[in-house]
């Protein structure tokens, strides 16, 4: 039998206060940074125009930007990985201001400034500002809805405190992903949002597996300290946590490298989320139960 | 587990797989024969195959996705009777505020800005309350969306676009999806142009026949060469070639390409098609009349769907144009089912419009109270004209009793009712509607036809076909690699028991893609990401089970007891974890639009398929191949 761990007995919960503090710090940092620094939202949210170009001739970023500026267009110019290794594709982004006829203006400017470049438009997106704002409200609402429905389900199947723990662990994962996007200024698009909402599902999934074991062990190990029951449950599910984590993480890494430029940021968001999702199931979701259990026990002792 | 039950389970499994294979087959077939092979099939088979195969999203096949929204500022301004400077000033303020803060509700701002003004000065009836007027305006904005939907469908129908999809989203938006558009600019112009509603007089049948005879004579007597791009605006290319030989005069005269794409206004550039015009793919038409079908009951000339492009091309050719009186024009009607086949009626009309949509004040649907026999209880459209419109309408109807008056939308005849008698007061009814829906559509059109274009694009995404193909290839590659890795990983880690999990995973992927085809769902690029992620997660349930079996074996249980306990103990974790993920998927689907929905859908289908394959299928495989009743060792 090939095994990573046969019967591990690692103390996961002993330093729970450290982990919880660490994670709460991340959570708070992410929220603060989100307010202070914000995110590099793409046109899905801000409104604007995005045009993906391919040229048969080598192009220069400065010249491209210069030509557009000459026409009064303030564009962000970046390169993308291309199927044709010789030349990268180019992404031109124009955010803010009126987008009426912007695409045509950009296309005629490029054609005029570089008549020999063999330009072709691979894709072009124009999105009004209103659509973007609605998307944001929609995202917030759907997170709230997912949370409510999950609290109900988990409360029915487990206990209310399990639901609280699962939601905290999940929100933690979401905010860690957001933290990365805020710090590194990665582009936040509709696909990234979808990835984050999916992570909510994944993270809960992972937490539930650990919780399921705790639920089972609580019944089996009567009279054993709750912290030990939880720690045993984590150890018993450890190999599964790592195996599933591995197959999922590798799949997502494949997506990062082979999925093409349109999926890269989405896959990166998924990767970070799966890693933190695995971490939070073990180091946050489970310890929260212990903390709560201890406090309730202390309260009961006091009231007696 | 009892053998008896397993037999039933195997039968169910075989049935599920058979249905999946049946649903998936069209996709495979389409991939094998490719675009070329598809074109070789006849039209009906093409449409059928396309609709049954997995639909690729616009991001994977190239195309155009547009979201249009009713411009309420323009709509309300257009509805105002006598907009004065005060009104315009207030509207400008409403516009500025709604543009500055896109999330505020237009109606809130409008109500606030006009609270000290009697709205009845501009809308509705005298002394009507502001609140009532606003309620009416709101209802009219809803109608405007429906009307735009009618106008767009009317325009796209017959434009040669493949599977155009035009749907309403929420209260104010319309989503237009055009797959495989080569020229997005042309499509945009077509979608974005202002609708034109006109009333034109249909010529008397006798006169129409004369003109048709003349056209027929030209077709018979002249060699009219129709280049493939005959629908292009450059009419110099449509020049009639001189009749140079006697043989040519008696023989077939019109060469029209049979490929209907030739008349697609969005067809590719001219340089690629002009050569095609002289090839042998052209079909010869002996007379113009053979393209027409006479419908006796209505004394109408009908053009079938396959003849329509040819008729359009003939009517657009220079030689034919010369014999049509300069004040007249031929226009086609909507495609409608006559008997079993769809036909469009051909009309000869006065070029000059007698009235435009501006002459109309209102239009509504009612049920015919009077009338006899078949007419009683049928849906009718009631309309009333403006004062100026009523005056002209009285004269027009008085002069043309028993002639037909065509309601023309964007150069297509929407309907051509008969004028029964003079209508003096500008109040008319139109009968002959097949359903309430049809009446509503017409009433809506008449009511709003006069308004300038009130929908504006708020979102537009175009993806070129090459990028779409690249994305599809990269996505498929990722899915393949992820599968390969997972297969290797499971076999190395779990040996033969891993093979079980792999069979389950492959069945899972298969069920997933079949379900996509079966539900007519659209596969998008994020959807492929969903599949790849599911591949990674699909083995989770099996890992849970196999880990449990290992645990039991470690405790020294027999193989049989271990497998039984493994499945039983893992069950609650599998169900709870999948249901929670499913909840997230459902919310994502509800909230998401377009590509996100595709992602959520693949994820959900994957989860459900996963529950089946991981729990039931692997168990069957264990039972069948490990023969663990007697086995003392399990390859795990």
Note the topology.
The complex is a heterodimer of chains A (304) and B (636).
Chain A: H1 16-36, E1 40-41, H2 43-46, E2 48-54, H3 61-70, E3 76-80, E4 89-95, H4 102-113, E5 120-127, H5 129-157, H6 160-184, E6 187-188, H7 190-220, H8 226-258, H9 261-303
Parallel strand pairs in A: 1-6
Antiparallel strand pairs in A: 2-4, 2-5, 3-4
Helix pairs in contact in A: 1-6, 1-9, 5-6, 5-7, 6-7, 6-9, 7-8, 7-9, 8-9
Chain B: H1 3-40, H2 43-52, E1 55-56, H3 58-61, E2 63-70, H4 72-79, H5 85-100, H6 106-113, H7 130-156, E3 165-169, E4 173-179, H8 184-192, E5 197-201, H9 205-221, E6 224-225, H10 246-250, E7 254-257, H11 270-273, E8 282-285, E9 292-295, E10 300-304, H12 308-316, H13 318-323, E11 328-338, E12 341-350, E13 355-356, E14 360-367, E15 379-385, H14 387-399, E16 405-409, E17 412-415, E18 427-430, H15 436-448, E19 455-463, H16 465-518, E20 522-523, H17 525-554, H18 559-591, H19 595-626
Parallel strand pairs in B: 1-20, 6-7
Antiparallel strand pairs in B: 2-4, 2-19, 3-4, 5-13, 5-16, 7-8, 9-10, 10-12, 11-12, 14-15, 15-18, 16-17
Helix pairs in contact in B: 1-2, 1-16, 1-19, 5-6, 7-15, 16-17, 16-19, 17-18, 17-19, 18-19
């Amino acid at each position: 039998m090939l095994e990573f761990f046969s019967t591990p007995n690692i103390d996961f919960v002993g330093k729970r206060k450290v982990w919880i503090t660490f994670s709460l710090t991340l959570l708070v940092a992410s929220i603060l940074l989100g307010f202070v620094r914000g995110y590099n939202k793409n046109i899905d949210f801000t409104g604007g125009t995005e045009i993906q170009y391919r040229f048969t001739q080598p192009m220069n970023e400065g010249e491209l930007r210069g030509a557009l500026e000459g026409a009064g267009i303030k564009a962000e110019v970046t390169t993308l990985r291309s199927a044709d290794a010789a030349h990268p594709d180019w992404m031109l982004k124009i955010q803010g201001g009126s987008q009426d006829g912007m695409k045509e203006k950009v296309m005629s400017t490029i054609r005029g400034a570089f008549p020999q470049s063999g330009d072709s438009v691979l894709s072009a997106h124009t999105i009004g500002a209103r659509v973007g704002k609605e998307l944001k409200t929609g995202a917030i609402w759907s997170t709230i809805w997912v949370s409510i429905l999950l609290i109900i389900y988990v409360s029915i199947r487990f206990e209310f405190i399990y639901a609280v723990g699962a939601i905290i662990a999940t929100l933690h994962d979401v905010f860690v992903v957001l933290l990365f996007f805020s710090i590194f200024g990665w582009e936040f698009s509709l696909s990234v949002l979808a990835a984050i909402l999916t992570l909510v599902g994944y993270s809960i999934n992972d937490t539930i597996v650990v919780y399921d074991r705790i639920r089972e062990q609580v019944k089996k190990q009567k009279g054993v300290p709750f912290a030990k029951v939880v720690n045993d449950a984590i150890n018993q599910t450890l190999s599964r946590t790592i195996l599933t984590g591995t197959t999922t993480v590798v799949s997502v890494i494949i997506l990062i490298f082979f999925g093409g430029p349109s999926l890269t940021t989405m896959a990166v968001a998924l990767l970070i989320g799966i890693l933190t999702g695995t971490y939070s199931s073990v180091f946050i979701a489970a310890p929260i139960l212990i903390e709560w259990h201890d406090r309730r026990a202390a309260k009961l002792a006091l009231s007696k | 587990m009892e053998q008896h039950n397993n037999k039933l389970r195997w039968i169910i499994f075989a049935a599920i797989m058979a249905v999946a294979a049946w649903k998936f087959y069209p996709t495979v077939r389409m991939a094998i024969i490719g675009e070329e092979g598809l074109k070789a099939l006849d039209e009906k088979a093409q449409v059928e195959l396309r609709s049954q195969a997995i639909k690729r999203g616009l991001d994977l096949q190239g195309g155009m996705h547009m979201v249009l929204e009713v411009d309420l500022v323009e709509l309300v301004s257009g509805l105002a009777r006598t907009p004065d400077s005060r009104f315009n000033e207030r509207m400008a303020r409403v516009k500025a505020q709604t543009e500055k803060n896109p999330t505020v509700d237009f109606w809130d701002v409008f109500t606030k800005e006009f609270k000290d003004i009697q709205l009845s000065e501009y809308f509705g009836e005298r002394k009507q309350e502001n609140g009532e007027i606003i309620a009416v305006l709101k209802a009219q904005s809803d109608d405007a969306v429906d009307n735009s939907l009618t106008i767009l469908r009317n325009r796209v129908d017959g434009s040669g676009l493949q599977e155009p999809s035009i749907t309403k989203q929420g209260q104010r938006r319309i989503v237009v999806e055009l797959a495989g558009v080569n020229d997005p600019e042309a499509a945009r112009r077509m979608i974005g142009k202002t609708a034109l509603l006109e009333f034109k007089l249909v010529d008397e049948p006798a006169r129409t026949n004369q003109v048709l005879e003349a056209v027929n004579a030209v077709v018979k007597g002249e060699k009219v060469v129709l280049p493939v791009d005959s629908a292009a605006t450059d009419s110099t290319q449509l020049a009639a070639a001189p009749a140079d030989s006697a043989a040519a005069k008696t023989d077939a005269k019109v060469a029209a390409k049979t490929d209907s794409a030739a008349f697609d206004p969005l067809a590719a550039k001219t340089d690629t098609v002009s050569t095609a015009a002289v090839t042998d793919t052209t079909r010869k038409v002996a007379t113009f009349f053979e393209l027409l079908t006479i419908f006796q009951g209505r004394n109408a000339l009908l053009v079938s769907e396959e003849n329509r492009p040819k008729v359009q091309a003939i009517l657009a050719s220079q030689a034919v144009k010369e014999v049509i009186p300069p004040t007249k024009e031929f226009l086609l009607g909507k495609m409608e089912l006559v008997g079993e086949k769809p036909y469009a009626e051909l009309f000869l009309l006065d070029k000059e419009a007698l009235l435009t949509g501006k002459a109309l004040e209102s239009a509504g649907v009612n049920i015919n109270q009077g009338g006899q026999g078949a007419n009683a209880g049928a849906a009718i459209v009631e309309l009333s004209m403006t004062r100026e419109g009523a005056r002209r309408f009285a004269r027009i109807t008085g002069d043309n009793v028993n002639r037909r008056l065509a309601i023309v939308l964007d150069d297509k005849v929407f309907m051509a009712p008969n004028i029964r008698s003079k209508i003096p007061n500008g109040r008319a009814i139109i009968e002959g509607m097949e359903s309430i829906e049809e009446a509503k559509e017409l009433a809506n059109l008449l009511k709003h036809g006069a308004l300038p274009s009130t929908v504006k694009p708020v979102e537009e995404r175009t993806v070129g076909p090459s990028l779409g193909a690249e994305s599809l290839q990269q996505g498929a590659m990722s899915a393949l690699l992820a599968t390969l890795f997972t297969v290797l990983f499971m076999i190395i880690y779990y040996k033969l028991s891993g093979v079980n999990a792999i069979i389950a995973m492959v069945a899972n992927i298969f069920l997933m893609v079949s379900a996509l085809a079966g539900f007519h769902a659209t596969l998008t690029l994020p959807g492929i990401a969903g599949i790849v992620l599911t591949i990674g997660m699909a083995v989770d349930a099996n890992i849970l089970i196999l880990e449990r079996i290992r645990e039991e074996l470690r405790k020294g249980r027999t193989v049989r007891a271990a497998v039984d306990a493994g499945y039983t103990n893992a069950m609650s974790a599998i169900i709870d974890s999948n249901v929670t993920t499913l909840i997230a998927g459902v919310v994502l689907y509800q909230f998401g639009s377009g590509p996100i929905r595709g992602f959520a859908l693949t994820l959900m289908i994957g989860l459900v398929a996963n529950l089946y394959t991981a729990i039931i299928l692997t168990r069957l495989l264990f039972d069948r191949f490990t023969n663990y009743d007697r086995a003392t060792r399990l390859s795990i």
